[in-house]
Specification:
alpha+beta; 6-stranded antiparallel beta sheet; Immunoglobulin-like; rod-shaped; 25 strands; 432 residues; 8-stranded mixed beta sheet
């Protein structure tokens, strides 16, 4: 028993009294175990068993950081000088046990244990972290604590740092984008305003050009002061005393039945007859419910048919434009619908006997309504022609110099569907 050499001593002082003591000095972990004491003689044998438990309390646990792992900080705990093998536990600030990685242990030459454990701590663990090494035999424990600051956890989760960086960059990018967008919007708004200003100026120039062209066109015509011929008026048409207005009544008037009077169509002719030169006159439509009215103005051959249902067209010697309950059209064959943005209530009728043209101009804005070209007057006399079919509507012949424009000019606009003709050489849809 070399392991006990020099460390044991047997005391016989109490042998006479039945006591025998064994003293072991320099206890070692290897001394742990069962010891048997036997007493025997020739006639008897007896023994006693003693259990020797050797315990050693180790050093305080040593805590260290093992690096970043699985989105957290890996903490190591090591303690040596224990016997028997102790327990290693992890606790948070509230005393709750934390799950840990598998533990390892080893023994030195004297048989004492060294134990090591590890735990991965995330930011959810609050307060200091404690490592406890406990001896179940001695009911003793040693504890060490470590507080890990928040920056360690940010570094432990680089994706969070990257995310924060991305969010910062995104915020900067959004801010820069908003700034550039507002700057561009201001620039675009300024460009739109400039474009609108240019367009407005162009529209004014176009209106001025239209006005000038209209004036030049009308000034090349002889302005005629017309009067209506009562002998041609349909019996249901009533002329004013000065024969400058015509309206329809609900009952026929008691008038002589003359060959030159219209008996079916509600028409009347002007007294003037033209065979050469350029002439124009202004007709104004008056009355209520103009939108639902029916009327027409133009020219006709002096020999136009007066009796029966006349087909109003150039072939029958009538060149005119008609308004019919919201629709404006030229009395061509077939009819030609005309663009209508507002009801024309003041119309210049322009007759060019030399060129064989009849033009109609909206006196409120100078826009050409329609032009008959190459009209077949055949050398006949041409007379102003009027048709009124709606009760309460009257056509009036007005005195107006060609250079006098309506105050509405410049306040109205024309569409591309009905462009303003320069009117220097009228050329509307070539219809006869």
């Amino acid at each position: 028993m070399e392991a006990y050499a020099g460390r044991t001593e047997l005391s016989r002082d109490g042998l006479s009294a039945g006591s025998l003591d064994l003293r072991i000095t320099g206890l070692r972990p290897s001394d742990d175990g069962r010891y048997v004491c036997t007493v025997e003689d020739a006639d008897a044998y007896n023994e006693a068993v003693v259990e020797l438990e050797v315990s050693a309390t180790g050093a305080d646990p040593h805590l260290s950081l093992g690096g970043y792992e699985a989105g957290g900080v890996r903490v190591l705990c090591r303690s040596a000088g224990w016997y028997p093998l102790p327990q290693l536990l992890w606790r948070d600030a509230r005393g709750q046990h934390l799950p840990s990685d598998p533990q390892t242990h080893s023994q030195d030459q004297e048989g004492l244990f060294e134990i090591e454990g590890a735990v991965t701590v995330t930011g959810s663990v609050e307060g200091p972290l404690s490592c406890v090494v406990r001896s179940s035999r001695l009911q003793q424990e040693r504890e060490s604590s470590l507080h890990i600051s928040a920056p360690f956890f940010h570094n432990a989760q680089p994706w969070k740092v990257a995310l924060a960086l991305v969010l910062v960059l995104l915020a900067v990018s959004i801010g820069l984008g908003v700034y550039l967008f507002r700057k561009q919007v201001k620039k675009d708004t300024k460009l739109v305003e400039q474009a609108a200003e240019i367009e407005e100026k162009a529209a004014r120039l176009e209106e001025q050009a239209t006005e000038l062209a209209w004036r030049r066109f009308l000034m090349s015509h002889n302005t005629v002061k017309l009067i209506l011929d009562p002998d041609t008026a349909h019996p249901m048409l009533v002329l004013s005393e000065d024969h400058r207005r015509v309206r329809r009544e609900t009952e026929q008037q008691q008038v002589p039945d003359r060959p030159e009077r219209f008996d079916v169509r509600l028409c009347v002719l002007g007294c003037e007859e033209f065979t050469e030169g350029r002439h124009c006159w202004l007709v104004e439509v008056e009355g209520e419910r103009l939108k639902f009215s029916r009327w027409a103005v133009g020219v006709a051959r002096a020999s136009v048919e007066r009796k029966g249902w006349i087909n109003r067209s150039p072939k029958k010697g009538i060149w005119a434009v008609q308004y019919y309950e919201g629709q404006l059209m030229s009395l061509t064959s077939p009819r030609t619908p005309l663009s209508l943005f507002s009801i024309p209530t003041r119309i210049w009728v322009c007759l060019d006997c030399t060129q064989g043209q009849v033009s109609f101009i909206n006196a409120d804005n100078g826009v050409e309504i329609f032009t008959f070209t190459a009209a077949s007057f055949s050398g006949e006399r041409i007379r102003p022609w009027f048709w009124v079919e709606t009760v309460g509507i009257q056509l009036c012949l007005k005195d107006s110099a060609p250079q006098t424009l309506s105050p509405a000019l410049g306040g109205s606009s024309t569409s591309s569907a009905t462009p303003a003709s320069p009117l220097l050489d009228p050329a509307g849809p070539a219809q006869e």
